[in-house]
Amino acid sequence: VQLVESGGGSVQAGGSLKLSCRYNIFRFSNCGMDWFRQAPGKERELVSGISAGGTTTYADSVKGRFTITRDNAKSSLYLQMNSLKTEDTAVYYCASSHPCVRVWGQGTQDTVS
C-alpha cells in the first residue's frame, strides 16, 4: 500500500478533524497531492489540492474552513477541517496528482452529525 489515510472519525457539527496521509512513493516531494471525498450516493469530488511547490486550491464548499498542508520530510499530507457541517460527511481519499501518476489511498470515513 502506497498511501495510507488516518484521522477520520465522528464529530458534531461545528467541530474539527485532521486527516493525515502517509506516502510510500519515491520522490513524494515532486508530486502534487489532492484530497477527494465521496458522500453516499454522490460522485467523488475534489476537495483540495497542493502542488509540489506548495500552491493550494480549495473547492468553494470548503474555502475558509479546510486547510491542506504537506510535510515532505515526513512524506505526509494533511487536511485540517474546521467548522464541520453535516454535508461534509463522506469518505475522504488522498491521491497523488500532476506530474505524478494518480495513486489513491483506501479512504477514511468522516461523519458529522
Throw out a few tags for this protein.
single chain, 113 residues, mainly beta, six-stranded mixed beta sheet, four-stranded antiparallel beta sheet, 10 strands, 49% strand
Describe this entry's structure for a reader.
The protein is mainly beta and 113 residues long. Helices cover 0% and strands 49% of the residues. Strands 2-10-9-4-5-6 form a 6-stranded mixed sheet, with no helix packed on it. The chain is globular and about 40 Å long.
Topology (SSEs and partners):
Elements (H helix, E strand, L loop, with lengths): L2 E4 L2 E3 L5 E7 L8 E7 L6 E6 L5 E3 L7 E6 L4 E6 L8 E8 L10 E5 L1
Parallel strand pairs: 2-10
Antiparallel strand pairs: 1-3, 3-8, 4-5, 4-9, 5-6, 7-8, 9-10
Shape: globular
What is the tally of beta strands?
10
Oligomer: single chain
Q: Tell me the Rg in angstroms.
A: 13 Å
Task: Determine the fraction of residues in helical runs and give it as a percent range.
Answer: under 10%
Strand content: over 45%
What is the count of helical runs? 0
Question: Average pLDDT value?
Answer: 94
Give start-end ranges of low-pLDDT stretches: none
Protein structure class = mainly beta
| Order of secondary-structure elements | EEEEEEEEEE
Distance between the termini: 31 Å
Strand order across the biggest sheet? 2-10-9-4-5-6
Q: How does the major sheet shape up?
A: 6 strands, mixed
